[in-house]
Amino acid sequence: MDDAKRQQIAGVHPYLQQQLTIQLDATSGLFRFRIGEEVRHLETGGVYIITGLPNENVKKEGDGWKDSYAYLMVDGRTAHRSQEQMEDGRFESLPEGSALAYYKEWKAKQPTAE
């Protein structure tokens, strides 16, 4: 973790320091994906940007609540998927810029209003 991140963490209430360390330290290994990371769903080919981590989001599934990732879809909507489903091999990380290229391709296929 770099010094700027350490200083950011040190400037908050001690109660929040542990959670910030987890979110900002990519080596913690707590979550497979990070905020801002671009991912692809292997079955559909859809490309998304992670906007929220499982320690911040929950999703109703069946009779209970599951920790979930939040992600941005190309049409601007936000969706949630359980941590279990996001991390079971359905999604892969992509190089930065992949979501923009996917968006441009998607946008070009949309019907235009006349």
Textual characterization of the structure:
This protein has helices at 3-10, 14-24, 83-86, 98-109; strands at 38-41, 47-52, 58-61, 64-72, 78-82, 91-93. It is α+β, with helices and mostly antiparallel strands. It folds into 2 domains: 1-30, no CATH class; 32-109, Thrombin, subunit H, CATH 2.40.10.170. Strands 1, 2, 3, 4, 5 and 6 form a 6-stranded antiparallel β-sheet that branches. Strand 3 (58-61) and strand 4 form a beta hairpin. Helix 1 runs antiparallel to helix 2. The longest helix is centred in the C-terminal third of the chain and has 12 residues, at 98-109. The N and C termini lie far apart (52 Å). The model has no long low-confidence stretch (mean pLDDT 80).
According to CATH, the fold-level topology of the largest domain is Thrombin, subunit H
- Major β-sheet annotation: 6 strands, antiparallel
N-to-C span: 52 Å
CATH classification class of the largest domain: Mainly Beta
Write down the overall mean pLDDT.
80
CATH architecture of the largest domain: Beta Barrel
Judged by helices, strands and strand pairing, the structural class is: alpha+beta
